[in-house]
Amino acid sequence: MRLVVGLGNPGPKYERNRHNVGFMAVDEIVRRHSFSAWRSRFQGLTADGDIGGEKVLVLKPATYMNESGRAVGEALRFFKLAPKDVVVLYDELDLPPTKVRVKKGGGNGGHNGLRSIDAHIGTDYWRVRIGIGHPGDKTKVTGHVLGDFAKQEWPDFERLIEDISDRVDLLIAGRESDFMSKLSQNKQPAPKKEKAESAKDQADPAPAKEETPPDTGLAAQLKRWMSGDKN
């Protein structure tokens, strides 16, 4: 059995925050893989299902980010799991937007959710780091993290969340490198519409110019008369 944890803050106020990308990712996993309905359990919300033949419990702590470890620790002890059976998805400031890295163990990088989990179950669990980028100024970090995804960046994150859900079977199977590789392949940029239209314009010949019809009106007749042409 695997315990998959998405980190975030509960409530509509935080729903679209960059800090809640872990919640967004597990929501999509539950939806796409037809998990059970959410229910209150372990100081959070849980849903369960099967991915690649392995039983999976998804958990969204309802304790707010700083106390995430309480919910994770409670679920871990109930099912008698080891930290290595836990996968945590969360936002990472130190990765470019939509970049994903998977690792086991390590430091918390100042992330309050990880700091709490470390305190309750240790550090030997799997982390799926979802890059949200750094604002470039330490004084802007809180606003960046607790701010909603910008309109122009959301389509890339929406696609990434869908890709994570599609490829999570590789993660559950212990094929972390393949998981990251597939996500990277799916990020290849699509052809730009403007370029396609430009190519079409080049392929279509320019329309021929219309010839001006001969002037057969009164002015033309008068001109011919004055020139001596009586016809």
TrEMBL record:
UniProt xrefs under Gene3D superfamilies: Peptidyl-tRNA hydrolase
Chain intervals for the UniProt region annotation (Disordered): 181-231
GO terms under biological process: protein quality control for misfolded or incompletely synthesized proteins; rescue of stalled ribosome
InterPro entries: Pept_tRNA_hydro, Pept_tRNA_hydro_CS, Pept_tRNA_hydro_sf
GO (cellular component) term, any one: cytoplasm
Annotated keywords: Cytoplasm, Hydrolase, RNA-binding, tRNA-binding
Localization terms from the record: Cytoplasm
Any one GO molecular-function label of the UniProt entry: tRNA binding
Domain of life: Bacteria
Chain ranges passing through the membrane: none
Catalytic residues, chain numbering: H19 (proton acceptor)
Enzymatic reactions: an N-acyl-L-alpha-aminoacyl-tRNA + H2O = an N-acyl-L-amino acid + a tRNA + H(+)
Site-annotated residues for Stabilizes the basic form of H active site to accept a proton: D91
EC number: 3.1.1.29
Bias-annotated ranges (Basic and acidic residues): 191-212
Residues at which tRNA binds: Y14, Y64, N66, N112
CDD domains (UniProt xref): PTH
Residue numbers marked as site, Discriminates between blocked and unblocked aminoacyl-tRNA: N9
The protein's assembly and partners: Monomer.
UniProt function note: Hydrolyzes ribosome-free peptidyl-tRNAs (with 1 or more amino acids incorporated), which drop off the ribosome during protein synthesis, or as a result of ribosome stalling. Catalyzes the release of premature peptidyl moieties from peptidyl-tRNA molecules trapped in stalled 50S ribosomal subunits, and thus maintains levels of free tRNAs and 50S ribosomes.
PANTHER family: PEPTIDYL-TRNA HYDROLASE
NCBIfam families: pth
Similarity comment: family membership: Belongs to the PTH family.
Name assigned to this protein: Peptidyl-tRNA hydrolase
Organism: Pacificispira spongiicola
Native organism taxonomy: Bacteria, Pseudomonadati, Pseudomonadota, Alphaproteobacteria, Rhodospirillales
Gene that this polypeptide is encoded by: pth
